[in-house]
Amino acid sequence: MTTTVRIDQHQLFIDGEFRPAGSGAQFETVNPADGTLITTVARAGEQDVDEAVRSARDARRKWRNATPTDRGRLLLAIAAQLRAESEALALIECLDNGKPISQARFDIEYSARYFEYYGGLADKLDGYVIPLGSDYHSYTTLEPFGVVALITPWNAPLMQAARGLAPALATGNTCVVKPAEDTPLTILEFARIARECGIPAGVINVIPGFGEDAGAALVRHPLVDRIAFTGSVETGRIIARMAADRLAPVSVELGGKSANIVFEDVDVDVAAFNALRAINLNCGQNCSAGSRLLVHSSIHDAVLDSMVALERGLTVGPGLEDPDVGPLTTRDQYQRVCDYLRIGREEGAEAISGGSALVDERLNGGNFVQPTIFAGVTPQMRIAREEIFGPVLCVLPFDDDDEAVAIANDTDFGLVAGIWTNDFSRVHRVSAALEVGQVYINEYFAGGVETPFGGVKDSGYGREKGLAALEHYTRMKTMVARV
Ligand code: NAI
Ligand code: MG
Prior knowledge:
Helix content is 40%, strand content 19%. By secondary structure, the protein is an alpha/beta fold.
């Protein structure tokens, strides 16, 4: 399989240059659709991390002192260039991550939107004046932190990096990105684009490598002023602990086990279609996936019948064929999802659709599983409590609003909930009672780069996206003068 990626760009990007790792180490990135090697990539070690952080540190003053208008214009130029190269970028994302090409195109457009949105905001961040009487003058400014470290996952590689980069850069920080070792390619293309658009050397650094060495070295580095992490709960705890040692501010956007709640007053087929989309998009590898479907018992069977019929029509295959469902991104994730399919059966849930890995001559070597619907799930089962991160839907019935809320909240996670109903007072009552960071009402995955996003409970803390993210990447300074 050929890609448009050029070999000299599978390197580290430090201080405006592509270069090999100091140790010469490399790692392989593979195509999840067939297990073949796409390319090798330089593997950052501690020394490389140090150089990347120092380069970001050196660039810090120049970047923060640039006019906000100039910073905003550069971000808008990046947005335009991402769009100009969107087809090539989507192809690379599709190969590296496995997602269907139309979903990869969506990710690139979404990434461009981040740069457009925060580029437009760069020159609109005011402070305020605090009235203390005529003897004083007091005012606030918003300052960048300095060097921001972004540690990103593999489920939406460029989009997840763009979500942190755009607000961090708009507010005058410089960045070091440690992409997931499974999907390093689009962010390296991005680094080239940023350089071509005129981003000064050192303002963006990209250090592909592994979590335990490059990632941990970045989090521990004393010159990193702020950390944003997206990934697993387990790693989130490790990073928050390391950051605590040197009191570095950190935000962690972790997993979910989000309840998508279908009340009895909605169209059964609409609910079924959207419930499948909520779990199967990106092969279920979304922190916000609607992985628990809570259905009012009066329409439970009808929704199940409709979903089974719809799921039978779904196509599964390599991302380049633009199927409904692609492969899982990593071999580990494939194994993990297969384990949960077995666990679900052992716990007594019934796979009314799918239920196992996909065995198909044509798809041999790829990380393919059957989109699966488990019925007969109880809230105590592991498949109802643990994040599977695959196209595996658990369906649980409920009898009234209170029970729906109780089941929805009976989880360690608290990222998203979906509500489907035409009863507006119920919408507000139930939304208020749900222990989550965001509620999607009558459309799952509603919202965009403008809408704040983050978790409660084990789904983490901090808010990305929207104006809320600006608070993360700036700190307020207060001046008080006796005049
Ligand atoms: P992970 O949390 O280990 O990896 C995410 C990022 O953290 C990667 O860039 C990785 O290199 C880095 N990392 C790992 N260990 C680190 C350390 N000690 N110090 C610094 N950085 C470190 O996620 P993993 O293992 O790839 O996936 C496991 C599970 O995590 C998935 O099955 C899924 O449940 C969840 N997950 C959630 C995501 C989300 O969007 N919230 C994204 C990816 C995974
Ligand atoms: Mg890991």
